[in-house]
Each structure stands twice: as structure tokens, then as C-alpha cells.
Design brief:
Largest sheet: 7 strands, antiparallel
Shape: globular
Order of helices and strands: EEEEEEE
Structural class: mainly beta
Strand content: over 45%
Number of helices: 0
Helix content: under 10%
């Protein structure tokens, strides 16, 4: 995992796996929005759906979600994790 930017309640970065890995257990510390850049991921959400993502797919998962990731390598993703900050559209700006 490589953090590109952090601050103001959010972090963004890239994750890259070049070789096959064991399933990855991950409990999200904040809302994670991701874009798969290469490879594929099967994300099993505890007590929830299974996501099948390939290059070009996006997903957004709520904070605290417990997941198991099965990756098809090489795998790369761009991700953003936010820390519970409300999202405002331009017309809702203070």
C-alpha cells in the first residue's frame, strides 16, 4: 500500500500486488472508495454481498466493513479512505 496524499480526514493511495497472495482480511477504518486499475478482486463482505470487480470497476464500502479479498494478480487499485466526513455537493457548500 502506498499513500499518495493524506490530511483533512481523508487518505488516497495505490495498492499493488504482483504475485499471488493468500486471501487478505481487511476491516475498513473509514469509507473506502476504490477503482480497480489492473487485475481483479473478489471481495466477500461479512454478512453481506460478494463483489466481483475487474479493471475499470469502482466500489464504495462503508467504514467498519469486514472483508476478505481474493486477488487475481497482477492487481492494482486506486483508493480513497475518508474518516466519516459528510460529502457536500457544490450547491450544499456553506
Amino acid at each position: 500500500m502506498h499513500v499518495l496524499c493524506g490530511g483533512h480526514g481523508a487518505q488516497s493511495g495505490l495498492s499493488r500486488f504482483t504475485e499471488s497472495t493468500e486471501p487478505v482480511r481487511w476491516t475498513l477504518p473509514g469509507r473506502e472508495t476504490l477503482l480497480v486499475l489492473e487485475g481483479a478482486a473478489r471481495i466477500e463482505i461479512d454478512d453481506g454481498p460478494v463483489l466481483e470487480l475487474t479493471a475499470g470497476d469502482m466500489a464504495s464500502l462503508p467504514a467498519g466493513t469486514s472483508t476478505t479479498w481474493y486477488l487475481t494478480t497482477p492487481f492494482r487499485e486506486f483508493w480513497v479512505i475518508t474518516e466519516g466526513l459528510p460529502v457536500r455537493s457544490a450547491d450544499q457548500a456553506p
